[in-house]
Design brief:
The protein has 486 residues and is an alpha/beta fold. It has four domains: 167 residues, Beta-Lactamase, CATH 3.30.450.40; 163 residues, Rossmann fold, CATH 3.40.50; 68 residues, Helicase, Ruva Protein, domain 3 (Orthogonal Bundle); 47 residues, Orthogonal Bundle (Arc Repressor Mutant, subunit A). 47% of the residues lie in helices and 16% in strands. The chain contains 21 helices and 16 strands. The strands form five sheets. It has a five-stranded antiparallel β-sheet, sandwiched between helices. Strand 11 and strand 12 form a beta hairpin. Helix 2 runs antiparallel to helix 7, helix 19 packs across helix 20 and helix 20 crosses helix 21. The termini are far apart. The structure holds adenosine-5'-triphosphate and magnesium ion. The site of adenosine-5'-triphosphate has 17 residues, from helix 9, helix 15 and helix 17. Magnesium ion binds next to helix 9.
Amino acid sequence: MTHFDAIRHDDLMGLYELTRTMSRLEDDADILRTVLKHFVIQIGAEVGAFIYYNIREDAFEVRMIESTLTVHDTDNYFSQTIFRKILKTREALLSFDTQSDTEYSASQSVVINHIHAILAFPLIINDQVYGIMYFDSRHSRQKFTEASRQLLTFFAPIASLTLAHALRGKAMHRENVALKKLLPQKPLPDIIGESRPMQQLTRLVHKVAPTDASVLILGENGVGKDLVARAIHRLSSRHNKPYLAQFVGNLPASILESELFGYKKGAFTGANEDKMGLFEAVHGGTLFLDEISELSMDLQAKLLRVLQNKEIKRLGENTIRKVDVRIIAASNKDLKQLIREGKFRDDLYYRLNVIAIKVPPLRDRREDIPLLARHIIRTAGDGSDKKISQAALKKLMVYNWPGNVRQLENVLQRALIISESAMIEEEDIVLEDEQEAENMEGTMEELKNRLIRERIRQFNGNKTLAAKSLDISLRSLQMKARELGL
Ligand SMILES: Nc1ncnc2c1ncn2[C@@H]1O[C@H](COP(=O)(O)OP(=O)(O)OP(=O)(O)O)[C@@H](O)[C@H]1O
Ligand SMILES: [Mg+2]
């Protein structure tokens, strides 16, 4: 029968503080360290240690020591006899005058280290001894008492439970991480690409889609902004509601306004009947505003109001209508620059840009080119199921793709028409070199890279000749080529 009649009120209060601290800790090591520190002070121990019991090897492993003195030889410092006894009894153990205690005096370590008193208790998880919390002293023995033993007996199940909880959390986390690594990232609907930038994009889209936040999709022409917008809608809780896209670029402001907001009959000449605008038509769903940078200042203000108040007024009408619309906007321009030039409202920018998704240009994910090429050929719809040669793929992979995936589609469509065999060959791939050569846009670094790529391509991948033509060493060309992933 276990008794707790000797536990002192002060010690209980100390225990209360300790358990409160422990309940805030999530890491097993933090918990163990806290317990050791607490009792080293509370019972005036010189050494506190956590000894893990390796059940498979039936061996004790010293994992953690909190001590006022330096324990040099941890292997021989601790008494295996005491550990074995706790393993058997599964109870807190107190031994004072260890030197004369016949049961332990035979134990080498106790004699060598002149230990006078020991208090230890087992941590039991799933009915197995997980480890032992150990405290000893050579000098002060005042607190190595029956009261302390009772206190530790009382505390042992609490400590075990807290530790078990932390270990389970850790195991689950590890399992989660491992599973996540095993699972291939769920692909985005209709979007091809396994390169690292595309994996990052995929992860971000999966995170963003289920929220109701406005999204700003940025990226060059033809990178797939439309596809990303659609994917966000399809992966969101609004997927059963409408998705509408409105191209904002080069549309007269008045027409765009009536498209977006709708109008009342007679609001302007030609308004022959009431018409619902896109904001209303898409109620509950997602509206994709493509090339948002082209929005007039007036419409920018109106769009901002819709975003803020979630209500619209049709042209020529005073009735306010509530709308629930998620806005996704896209731009291939640098909106920050337009803000500086006073062409885009910064308050609207921040409203739209709750989450920004940058779709990487094709030249930054060349690994995806073979996948994309095969996908485009397969879905080209001429039913010919042509293949593409390695040389042709290589030609595609070294090109710079200023028009990105759309340009790749065009080039392959042309190749499919030109090609006379079942295989698209290198010569079927016609790239817009002249246009490319004329294109002097970009930084010095970009121009240099483009030139290097161009030359390697011109010399069919012969780097020696390419280097010679550029009057640089083969070595530096090779280094550059590696950098560019050629
Ligand atoms: N990752 C991809 N996988 C498959 N097809 C793609 C991918 N990216 C783009 N495409 C295709 O390339 C073409 C251009 O894509 P999209 O219209 O989405 O680009 P965009 O960024 O909106 O271009 P723009 O700036 O001209 O509006 C489309 O036909 C699209 O289907
Ligand atoms: Mg587009």
